[in-house]
Amino acid sequence: MNILVHTRPYICALKTLRFKYLIQTAMQKVSVFLFKTTYDLVKLFWTEHTSLQIVLTIRDEPCIILQKMLPCRTILATRLRCKSKQGVFYVKKFKQYFSEFRLLLRSVPSTVTSVFVVAVFAMNLLANKSINTGSWTWLALDTGIIVSWVAFLCMDVLTKHFGPKASTQISIFAIAVNLLMCLLFFVASKISGVWGAYFDLGEQSIINDGLDVTFGGTWYVVIGSTAAFVASAVINNFLNFAVGKLFKRKPDGFGAYACRTYVSTAIAQFADNLIFALIVSHFFFGWSIVQCLTCAATGMVVELVCEAIFSPLGFAVCRRWQRDNVGREYLEHVNNSIANQ
């Protein structure tokens, strides 16, 4: 009994050493296994071995793992090829779109493009000033109404001659120029200095700050005017084109032109005024919903009257463009693209 008691610590020590040895041996085998597996996985993903060669190479231990990994590699390669093809496709489409847009800018007379861009910028700037309607509290208008019809007249002319897609592209171009000018005006408003009105009127500091805010713009007016005009441009252009398609007899006559412009202008102008009023005037200027609706309706009426007055001018421009074959290169490009599809 005493011998067993004295030898028990040595037996425990031997068991501990044996356990450590077994642990070290197991760790070495796991390390070798992981190294071989990692090496073969690297070979799998970076070389072009076949399935048979991989199985023969690592038939001992990690065979099942790599047999399952092989389809994953195939799927991964397929996905990468698909994404690569999609990327090339989108790049090609973008280049084609940009080339077509450059051709459109060369084809549209510069006078119309310039008037269109100036009208878009002016109506968004003038939208900062409300019109005093006196006791008619239900009526609300802003001074942007005096030039907004010019932009819609340009869009109607462009849609009639070049199509709704071209007119929408020019509209987006005008919006981009407007945003650039808003940015430049904002930078100018932050530059230290005084406006000319500072020396002419009293309360100079208030006038100077007011002009800085007006020309510098506010983010909600910019966002509201941009969203409203983009939506109304799409509505106007494609509705104008759709109404024009309904005229089978004399589609190029003044009656067809007047009908398509009046219908599209009325609906698009109402949408433009209502979207801007809801985004900006309702939330930031305190207009009621009734005022927003009346603003949209009255603005639509005023701009529709202006459109009716100047529609003969727009029709004359369309007839002259058609007679002079304006934009022939772009129209031929569009027709060839449609034919190829």
Walkthrough of the structure:
The model is unreliable at 1-6 and 44-71 (pLDDT under 50). This protein starts with a helix and ends with a helix. Helix 1 runs parallel beside helix 3 and helix 4 packs across helix 6. It has 341 residues and is mainly alpha-helical. The protein has a two-stranded antiparallel ribbon. It has eleven helices and two strands, in the order H-H-H-H-E-E-H-H-H-H-H-H-H. The radius of gyration is 36 Å and the shape is extended. The protein has helices spanning 2-46, 51-57, 63-107, 110-126, 145-162, 164-190, 204-216, 219-245, 254-284, 289-324, 328-340, and strands at residues 130-131, 141-142. The longest helix has 45 residues, at 2-46.
Characteristic key phrases:
341 residues; mainly alpha; two-stranded antiparallel ribbon; 11 helices; 2 strands; 1% strand; disordered N terminus
What secondary-structure arrangement, pairings included, does this model have?
Layout: H1 2-46, H2 51-57, H3 63-107, H4 110-126, E1 130-131, E2 141-142, H5 145-162, H6 164-190, H7 204-216, H8 219-245, H9 254-284, H10 289-324, H11 328-340
Antiparallel strand pairs: 1-2
